[in-house]
Amino acid sequence: MKQKLGIGLQLYTLRDEMLQDMASVLQQVAEMGYEGVEFAGYYGYRPEQLKSFLSELSLKAIGSHVNMERLQNHLEEEIEMNVAIGSQYVILPGLNQDQRHALPETLVKPEQALVVTQILEAIYESSRTGKAIYFENRK
Fold first, then answer.
1. Is residue 84 domain-resident?
2. Total number of domains in the chain
3. CB burial class (10 A; 0-12, 13-18, 19+) of residue 101?
4. Which range, 84-93, 103-112, 126-135, has the best average confidence (pLDDT)?
5. Which among 24, 63, 115, 117 could disulfide-bond with 102, CB atoms 3.0 to 4.6 Å apart, if both were Cys?
6. What's the DSSP call for residue 1?
7. Within a domain: residue 1?
8. List of residues 6+ apart from 29 with CB closer than 8 A
9. How many Cβ atoms are within 10 Å of 120's Cβ, its own excluded?
10. So what's the pLDDT on residue 20?
11. DSSP secondary structure letter of residue 45
């Protein structure tokens, strides 16, 4: 039996509106018929608070875009949030220019190993909770 795929919305597209009033935006998203959302920030919501609000709106958290700084310095908070809201995926949406230059196309040099190590550590830590970290490779 095939599983029905619902329609989700990447909230990064509404980042300016989310910054103004996340609750109203999520309510409107639910009213439009979206079944799930992919976060790009939590706008001051705590994990249990966001979990409760999503439940009230019958929205599912599909994933969260999390930048490298958050993965390096706030990994436990990100894992806690994504576990609480039921998010299946943590996505590293890209690297800044300095981080990209530290990752050559074919070979990692010793001076570039730190960025790779940090990404791998984040992936390992998240996997212990059953969450996955994905990397979007954009240029």
1. yes
2. 1
3. exposed
4. 84-93
5. 115
6. -
7. no
8. 9, 11, 14, 37, 57, 59
9. 12
10. 96
11. -
Question: What average pLDDT does the segment 88-111 reach?
Answer: 65
CA distance 77 to 100: 25
Measured CA to CA, the distance from residue 48 to residue 61 in angstroms comes to 13
Q: Is residue 43 part of a domain?
A: yes
Q: Which long-range contacts (CB under 8 A, 24 or more apart) does 22-25 make?
A: 23/53
For strands 8-10 and 132-135, give the pairing.
unpaired
Q: Is residue 64 part of a domain?
A: yes
Dist CA 40 CA 65 (whole Å)? 5
| The two three-digit tokens of residue 112, written as one number | 């570039």
Q: pTM of the prediction?
A: 0.71
- Using CA atoms, how far apart are residues 92 and 133, in angstroms rounded to an integer? 7
What mean pLDDT value characterizes the chain? 80
CATH of the domain at 79: 3.20.20.150
The amino acid that residue 70 corresponds to is R
| 52: Cβ contacts below 8 Å, ≥ 6 apart | none
- Which residue from 67, 94, 78 is spatially nearest to 129, judged by alpha carbons? 78
